[in-house]
Amino acid sequence: MVTLNGQTLTFPEVRRVLFDREQVTASEESVKKVQASRKAVERIVDEGKTVYGITTGFGKFSDVFIGKEDVEALQLNLIRSHACGIGEPFPEVVSRAMVLLRANALLKGYSGVRPVVIERLLDLVNKGIHPVIPQQGSLGASGDLAPLSHLALVLIGEGEVFYKGERMPGIDALTKEGIFPITLTAKEGLALINGTQAMTAMGVVAYLEAEKLAYQSELIAALTIEGLRGITCAFDEDIHLARGYKEQVQVAERMRHHLVDSRLTTKQGEIRVQDAYSIRCIPQVHGATWQTLNYVKEKLEIEMNAATDNPLIFNDGEKVLSGGNFHGQPIAFAMDFLSIAMAELANISERRIERLVNPQLNDLPPFLSPEPGLQSGAMIMQYAAASLVSENKTLAHPASVDSIPSSANQEDHVSMGTIGSRHAYLVITNARRVLSIEAICAMQATEIRGIDQMAQTTRQFLTKGRELVPSITKDRVFSKDIEVINAWLKDSEFHFDKQTTNKIHS
């Protein structure tokens, strides 16, 4: 059971809730804070004070006073009118993350909602009811208004959900689980949609996949080094300590560990003096990606536990302040940075693929073909990888450098962070397929060199890989092979660090 308090949610906990379906609950202390802030909202309504979003309209309508008799209608109208999401829905796991993160943010006790609102969010998580949330339509400031409105619709018995493998009206899933929809009262609609949970949820899922892929990329690169009789001297610790980046040092250490007992690798001067950059500079390039991943993780951990709606209620209602915590700029930058870093993992992987298939760059059969000329072998797999790498270069264009004013220029600068997070996820998806192609080519090359001479770790990878994809003994539809390896990398639990290097399983 994961206990939420709005302050301490961690990546391991998020991973357990998202992928292991661990149940969640709210801490007693956080619920007390929620109750206190709710009393403040009720006082504001009762006294007829003018406070943004509680007794006023929204955006450009912030100067329009709303009477006590209309506060419920105001919140309902807000959710319905703002549910303007378009396009394909977010993956179900992202929707689950969105609900989890929104509940955690409200539990900080600054938002003025009733505890029942949070209870319903936790019900959705615990019962596996995931709102259908279109991916497009958010500017990433003033909150992820459109996506989160689709989330909020489900709480009031409207909208659609994914439930037990089916897409259905939200009210049907609630009814099946005996959950009653709620009527939103003062500030509650605004509190649900005025936040960064769409971009953050997408970013969290993207990060988790990126972290796994970054570890996997090192092992796949180790296979390539064996296939090319690469020089391991470039991974000597002294080289990397001399520069001083800890992530670079760590990548080099893992590469040495992967290849420690290989008889296919060489020392400088045995076959050649030094390798090309895509081999020799793996610690430097992959290490720089790890620097970025660490930065992204830090920002996401902060945002997962952040109060991002407006206004915020402090000191039991003594201070009710309008601000801009809903602005997604910190996550927008992080997502753009993530796109660039993961695009580079794919970029250098594609260069290694070229070295595996190009007969002018190695002494292997041309394009790893069993009958060069009659059969093309891996020739077009390199084309496919190059295409994905090129597509990533366009996706990695920063979303955060753009801004379009909205709400009659009241909201005149926005982050586009949700676009950035979606693009980051696409980049990671493409990068995984590039690395899948490298894995297929590297397995073929090491088999040609001699399986019995491989390192224990890389041989374990090859053994598992060959259960999924056979050797290239004749041309076939390689698209299927790429997708099989891609699914393995995406869905498997194998995860490589110093402690788990020798654990490869599905």
Question: Can you put this structure into words, describing what you see?
Answer:
- The chain is mainly alpha-helical and 506 residues long.
- It folds into 2 domains: 2-195, Fumarase/aspartase (N-terminal domain) (Fumarase C, Chain B, domain 1), CATH 1.10.275.10; 203-310 and 335-402 and 421-491, Fumarase C, Chain A, domain 2, CATH 1.20.200.
- 55% of the residues lie in helices and 6% in strands.
- The protein is built from 18 helices and 9 strands.
- The protein has helices at residues 11-19, 28-47, 71-82, 92-106, 115-127, 145-155, 170-176, 188-193, 197-227, 237-243, 246-259, 277-280, 282-304, 329-357, 379-395, 417-449, 456-468, 478-491, and strands at 2-4, 24-26, 86-89, 129-131, 134-136, 160-163, 166-169, 312-314, 319-321.
- The strands form 4 sheets. Strands 4-6-7 form a 3-stranded antiparallel beta sheet. A two-stranded parallel ribbon has the order 1-2. Strands 3-5 form a two-stranded antiparallel ribbon.
- A hairpin with a 4-residue loop joins strand 8 and strand 9 (319-321).
- Helix 9 (197-227) runs parallel beside helix 16.
- The longest helix has 33 residues, at 417-449.
- The chain is elongated.
- The model is unreliable at 497-506 (pLDDT under 50).
